[in-house]
Amino acid sequence: MTDHNPSGSEGLDLKRLVEACTRRDFLKLSGMGTGAVAAGALGAGALLHSEPARAVRTDARIVIVGAGAAGLNAANRLRRALDGAEITLVDRREDHYYQPGLTLVATGVWPQSKTEDRNERYVPRGVNWVKAMVEEYDPENNRIVTDEGETLEYDYLVVTTGLELRFDHIEGMDADLIGSHGIGCVYDNPRHAAATWSAIDDYLAEGGKGLFIRPPGAIKCAGAPLKMTMITEHRLRQRGMRGNAELHYYAPGDGLFSQPDIDDFLKRHFPEERDINVHWHHRVKGIEPEEKRVTFESDEDGEYTESYDFIHLPPSMSAPKPLRESELAAQEGSHADGGWLEVDQYTLQHKRYPNVFGVGDCCGVPIGKTSATVKNMTPVMVENLVQVIQDRDPSAEFDGYTSCPLITEIGQAILVEFNYDLEMVPTFGFISPYREHWMAWVMKEHLLLPAYNAMLHGRMS
Amino acid sequence: MIMEAIATAIQFLGGTLPAVIILAIVNLILLALLIARVGSSFRNFGRALGSALGVGGVVAILSVFLLPAHTGASWANLHGAVDYLGLFVISAGLGVAAAAAVFPPIQYLLGMGSSSRRQHQSARA
Description:
heterodimer; A: alpha/beta; FAD/NAD(P)-binding domain; 2 domains; five-stranded parallel sheet; 10 helices; B: mainly alpha; 4 helices
């Protein structure tokens, strides 16, 4: 297989990360009549409050660290799969962000509020929610310590912490700069996404030099920097300002996308159809916001400085500090640099601590720091955890499914879905994963959020 | 897959779900009254059905022309048969939903009107 390495990282595993979405089935929605909706609502109302037909009886103590997409999904599924388990969810955050929608906020398509939600809506009854953050993992003694000083002992641990944005890896950069000095960054939270749109809006009015950065290493929503570039280019055309702007995309490696067919498409599409200059083997070293200058490290050109009028500057990412500095983090190999959770990529069970499992961005798996991945990972993890509780070997396997509605301009997208083998695995065979479609855009804009919310309730597989 | 679609549909409807359920219940009550011939009947069924289908047809046609713009897209963003087929299927679905929503009240009103006229004619005779 051709080696495509958009991440610029050395390990094969760190080059295949794409953006979030979930499976969808909107044709069913489009055909709904009033009666069908009502009947469906009533049926699902019962479903949402039903107990599992064959819940496994156990008095196991299960601690889930992190109340993001993976943690809430896992909590709901474990709550239904187990009868009598003591399930504890640990996370101080009460706000919940629909992160797959941040690209739409950052490009002025959605208001910030559309991506903001509350975790309490999704925490199932019967689950103990400890509002603190984990400060220390002690897997040898089956316990964690929170930043409130509380020690929680467990029989089984599920790690779903997500990841940490490493703005500290860029000299002069700080998250508070987003939205000022022509700096944008789609990641992290809706406030930053809205601030990014503010900066882009100014850029659309003035034009000039726009720089778009893809940070090195494993990142979440790896399609997001590409989408930000293409949508900004489209916005410039909409405003009649394209002729006043020059756009540059900086990749840390020699690829743009981990799936080879899409990588080939983008390598033609960017320069030939969008007039976007692509620069390979570039990493940002530092930024001088007041002067609007950025310093690159380039394999070919060494260290040099570039001026800009707008820069989309996502940082590199790693596992959160308590996790990456713990015994649970990968000790060697391609996942060690980011301190990612050392799990088997198929069973999602920790390689050294069999009573520890992981789901989501924190996992050291080859691809898929996306909510689409979370959707497919979680049922596998739950099935395997239940089997381990029953003293059986975990048998369910995650195939690496991930998905990216790659928005090429407002109104159309390529619905890319693939697995560990980088094979396309389209959910809907009639929608080509190789070309732009309005249907893919409709799914992204209208249907993925409700599907995501259903996933948080543990209702999507 | 069906349960996933239902779960997604509930989330999709979101805050409008109570209104949709109320509308459905009102329509079911109207249908029950029609079947029981309480205050109205299925007389003028053809006219009622035609009117409902007319409303549905108008909604479907409007949807075909307005949906792309409603999604922030332009006609240039529709590529190939899949997108156009999707547009027609969604529009047809909206049209069917609209027709289903307005049929019970239309039928009730038309059935009730003829019933009143008959009663009036009987009284005169």
